[in-house]
Amino acid sequence: MHLESVDTVDIISAADFRQKYYEPKRPLVIRSLAKQWPAYQKWNWDYFKNAVGKVEVGVYNNIKSDAYTPINKADDYMLFGDYLNMVKQGPVELRIFLFNLFTHAPQLTGDFTWPDNLMKGFVKKFPMLFVGGQGSVTHMHFDIDLSHILHTQFIGRKRVLLFPFEEQHHLYRKPWEVLSFANFEKYYEPGASKVDLGKYPDLNKARGFDLTLEHGDTLFMPAGYWHHMEYLDSGFAMSLRALQSSFAGKLKGVWNLVGMRNIDTLMKKTAPVWWYNHKRGHYQLP
Any idea where the domains of the chain sit in the sequence? Predict the structure, then answer.
């Protein structure tokens, strides 16, 4: 893999952001955007536990999906407060994603400000929380709705691997899915990496970005960007999503949600092994 660092700024004007990053679809880390929010100081484990600790949430482990894995099906369910207690006590390879805690505690939306000056089209009903214990992994994928993302890290550090959408074939995208066949776990750690270049040789051609997010960092991920994330420490992040400005971009997102996902779900239910092997045959994988 050919990896470079992501541009990093403390602050950026709306004009520069659009010209240099939004329009050319290039990622960026903004260090001080979230530091202006009350959330930067207020949001911690106890704050969330007090606000939504009694809400039941789905949790996910590190195991990669197989022929039978349903789309976004949780591996277990527990109270959010109990999960946070586990995360605080030490390493735990369980994570929560796409959790809209603001439907349960709408007052928390007052803790941050939507950065409408940077881009339009924010889906303001769905700010999403992502939580993970130290060692938990979000495997390589791109977001199915093809939205632009502002992903702000709170507490702890997170290692992130990014690739433009156009690298999908070098990343061995599963046909009819948003996932990669390859496992990028511990990609940054010599001797522990699970990246199998012998099995997936085209990964050598992939060009992307490698970075670490810390408390208060906001990552701009342009629409369709592939991303793999690993929690170096227990922590949580919030994603603010914005629809693409173009009609074509919106239409592709709708197709992924309504067409592609439903077809894939149907095939997984009716002929899971054949469907999985059919996908692997696209790359002539054993």
Answer: 2-281
